[in-house]
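G.,

No rush on this.
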Amino acid sequence: MIIFFTNKTMPKRIQLPDDFYKHDFKQLAKIEKHPRTRIRFIGLSHIQNGKSYEQVAQYLLQSLSAVKQWVRHYKDEGIDGLKEKQRSGRPSKARNQNHTKLLQSILAMQNDKNGGRVRLKDIQNMLAKDFNIHYQNINGVHYLLTKLGLS
């Protein structure tokens, strides 16, 4: 009788760097503030304890490719490769405008009101009319004012 072993019955040996076992990923996960990075540390802690990539993916409800990517990032960059990186996000609508001109216009509008309040709706209309910046929502105007240091 001949018995064949497939990859599903015998997990493939994982090649990890020598310094992989020097880190205490469980402790790093406890002190990490960012939740995505914390999950990565927990996953690598399970791998240190002998779990397979598939098992770690199931435990953490992540895809297998994500777990493999964490290990690859660790191999390439070390602990820093696991940390969450800055995301660019959507570009500002006022990115091409000079922020000092915007700031001066808003302050001039405040002075014209003789101490009265300038509403976000007024600033939204001024931005559309004078600078061709169209915000559909007042929240975008408020975010711009916060960026300019006015709110």
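When you get to it, here's the other one too:
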Amino acid sequence: MQNREMNGVLVIDKPSGRTSHDIVDIIRKATGMKKVGHTGTLDPLATGVLVLLLGRATRIGRFLELEPKEYIAGAVFGIATDTQDITGTIIEKSNTPVTKDALKRLMPEFTGEISQIPPMVSAIKIGGKPLYKLARQGKEIERPERKVTIFELVLLDYSITDGKAHAVFRVLCSGGTYVRTLIHDMGARLGAGATLESLRRTRVGVYTVSQALTVDEANREAIEARLISMDGALAHLPQVIVQNGLIGLLLNGQKIDAKGIKAHPDAVVSDEFVRVKSENGVLLALGKVTNEATFEVKPEIVVGSGGQG
């Protein structure tokens, strides 16, 4: 019997030493599906929440990848590396003391909106080429600054080992933030250098590590049981219900006017995304209200099929 297609969101607890692409491959093999993606890379060193998209859910990645993320980050001060984490080559050493009080005084400077220059060893593409591939060739190119937001930066632990300060932080930040760059920049600001020595992502948006499936648990049956529906993953978006007789038109990208809409929110702003669902509650598409006065909805991303779900 052919395996049933799976369309939804899966939360995995990534182990250290594996790339995000390694995890995608593992889930592809476990499910027999080719269409598997993720919403944000975790470095091989890092562990924790990796949000995967299966089947038609690969179309909704943009709605999840910029969700706030929470990390527990371990840092060592007095060294800096070429990758900004402990896996890299040491390029700077310092004996400048870093006290707990100095860290507490510094942290407000790195809270709120800050600028970061992405590290060379990263998946960001410039001119169509991932930076990490250029770094492997020994090249370093200019990278534009990016604005990111650190919503919370909390010092959880501080200790001295072998003469070097070690700290553990809880970081709640916007999508696109590089925590190793945050640690690197804090070290530079103190004149001591700093390197990320451990990183665990504990939350992405509403998804926490307590919900996550481990790689060892990831067989098809367990994945099906833990799969989050696309509708559930997008529950923060308002919903519009269309008449079942118009589903075919909608799936073909046709605009639906007010006469074909059974229910909608009282107030929806034009050009904001809504979930477009059938009378049976099946998610069909993500659309935009193109005319607030007449309440026309145009599908932008179709996630339903001829069988609706």
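Residues 237-302 form a domain with the Archaeosine Trna-guanine Transglycosylase; Chain: A, domain 4 fold (CATH 2.30.130.10). The chain has a mean pLDDT of 90.

Enjoy the weekend,
O.
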